[in-house]
Amino acid sequence: MKILFHCVYFPPEVGGLESHVYELARGLVEEGHEARVVTSRSLPGVAREEVVEGIRVLRTWFPSRSPLGWTVHALGSTPATRRWARWADVVHAQAFSSVVPAGLAARSARRPLVVTLHTSHFLTRAQRPGWRPILRRLVHMGDHVLAASTEIAEVATGLTGGTVSVEALTNGVDTARFRPVTPAMPAPSGVRRLIVPRRLFPKNGVEYLVRAVPEIRRAIPTIEVLVVGDGPERERLGSLAEELGVADRIRFLGSRPHAEMPGLLCSAELAVIPSLMEATSVAGLEAMSCGLPLVASRVGGLPEIVGDDTGVLVPPADPPALADAIGTLLSDPDLKGRGERAREAVVERWSNARLVARHLEVYQQVLGPGNGRVPRHRGSRESA
Asked: Are residue 23 and residue 141 in the same domain, yes or no?
């Protein structure tokens, strides 16, 4: 089977959407299928076209990281997407910003369109009256619509008045890659270390973790926090740590390549996802897959992956609750057992193999007869 993905960002960009598309495409290739990706040239120096682990990637012009930039990229990438759609069996739009170019390409080539709704950007815009009819139309364009969390699925179904059934499908993790490994940064003797794999944007709530550190340090003087990720809040968060007198307890490591993350995650005892909004959190699943318990905000899809035996959920934007949960876990004699159960849960429910298998079922469904629509894939096949 030949699958064409469209997504605004793709590795070497770092993030949940990027990881999801990369791992899904790689898993499909490993199963003997073909995958191509149309994405953006969002980073300087990246190749316009290349093959990454069997995935053929085409990057088109990207003006800026903004709603206007995403829109311009979507329109500008449409011709290339249409060319490659003639090669594909199925076209798959990853996130609502990709639905228009992928949908136009699928319609032109008479191929079925699968849509996956990701990220808090969808949830935020779904609350705005001006965006609701736009998003409703985008959801209606898909022959099958997936969502990265139950919350996103419910919101999307609500936008259509129940006329479109949206399937919640949690993101997956390559459990062979993300597993307990030798720590990349072994902690000094006596140091209690936690890791925050979060890009530094307001919605990710890292500010509230920084504000919790003084209280954590009073209970655990040897605490150390590794923050892995970069973003526009970096300078402000560094200043806040200085102001609170905990700059020596927090290490901002910046953005790191995805391949380095297992070793970094295994350098800590637990992971913290203090988000204010979240879909599922690939970063949280990756940490759990590496054997780390999770302290996470009770928002979005996080309650779907964090149970009482694998971590603790706390209210968002609540530093005292974060500090209490982290202190409780670090003093738990069963901390390692929680981490082992976290990995077991990911292997059983959220592995990339499970994600690939379900996607193949969906692709077969939209290609086959009896799906209630005129298949867009009918017609002559053209090479690309």
From this structure: yes
383 pLDDT band, cuts 50/70/90, is very low
Alpha-carbon torsion angle 171, 176, 180, 183, nearest 10 = -100
Question: What CA–CA distance (Å, rounded) separates 82 from 375?
Answer: 17
Residue 225 lies in a domain: yes
**Does residue 384 sit within a domain?**
no
The residue whose two tokens read 């639905």 is: 99
pLDDT on residue 368: 87
Count of Cβ atoms closer than 10 Å to residue 61 Cβ = 12
Q: Which residues are registered as beta bridge partners of 273?
A: 296
Question: From CA 354, how far away is CA 18, in angstroms rounded?
Answer: 18
Neighbouring residues of 148: CB distance < 8 A, sequence distance ≥ 6: 20, 116, 117, 118, 119, 168, 169, 170, 171, 279, 280, 301
pLDDT at 379: 36
DSSP 217-246: HHH-TTEEEEEEB--TTHHHHHHHHHHTT-
Q: Do both 231 and 241 map to the same domain?
A: yes
The separation between CA 164 and the C-alpha centre of its own chain, rounded to angstroms, equals 24
Rg (CA), the chain: 21
Residue 303, beta-bridge partner list: none
Q: Residue 286: exposed, middle, or buried by beta-carbon count in 10 A (0-12, 13-18, 19+)? A: buried
Its pTM stands at: 0.86
How many domains is the chain partitioned into structurally? 2
For residue 351, the model assigns a pLDDT of 95
- In the chain the first and final C-alpha atoms are separated, in Å, by 15
Give the separation between CA 117 and CA 131, rounded to whole angstroms.
15
